[in-house]
Amino acid sequence: MTKIIGHRGAAGLALENTRASLLAALQQGVDMVEFDARKTADDKLVVIHDPHTGRLTTDQFLVRTKTLAELQATGLHNGETFLSLDDALEIIGDTPAIIDIKEPDSVDELLLALARHPQTRPSIASFQHDELRRIRRALPDIPIFVLEHLSPLEIVHSARSMGATGIGLNKWLMNPLTYRLAKRYHLELYVYTVNHPLIARFLRTLYPDIHLCTNHPERFVKAGRARRPKPPRVRTQKS
Hints:
Elements: E1 4-6, H1 19-27, E2 32-39, E3 45-46, H2 68-72, H3 85-92, E4 97-101, H4 107-116, E5 122-126, H5 129-138, E6 144-147, H6 154-161, E7 166-170, H7 176-184, E8 188-192, H8 197-206, E9 211-214
Parallel strand pairs: 1-2, 1-9, 2-4, 4-5, 5-6, 6-7, 7-8, 8-9
Antiparallel strand pairs: 2-3
Helix pairs in contact: 1-3
């Protein structure tokens, strides 16, 4: 059955990778919620996709040059503050999540955060394949998904070589050979970022056993699916 994955929370309904976006995805009843994690100057993990803050706040700087506390003192366009990985895991509770690790040397802090949130049901995705290998060695039961910018065929080989659960592929790179290889080797496959129902229908006609990662889960979640209750607004103490 096709799973609907909320991309960066529900980035078409609220500012991406924020509390509002994660809550919007949960309220739509997504099967999984996806969000990004990137390192700060003090080696914490903050929830943001880009290496800079330009699209989310009027104060533009490189994420890696600021501490988590400095980032969280910066207001976002929607009036919120940046989420730490702990914050995001607290918000989503036991809803299955895909955490997209954006940078190398993130695994140690990731493992600490997961240990602090035993209710989390995580999968880890990344273009950083060495990070995925480290996660596979440290937590062999956690699902991992290999991402690839350019080669939709090499990604299958990479996934098999590290014992990955599956692959994530841009919708424009999706092709029949990759799909057949993924099926042959029992790899799950999700496609991003699918926002238009006609494109989703086309993809599912050609590739019926894929999952859809979307900014607009409200366009794909079946009507009547029970909404998850809104989690309590509790802040994680920063270290």
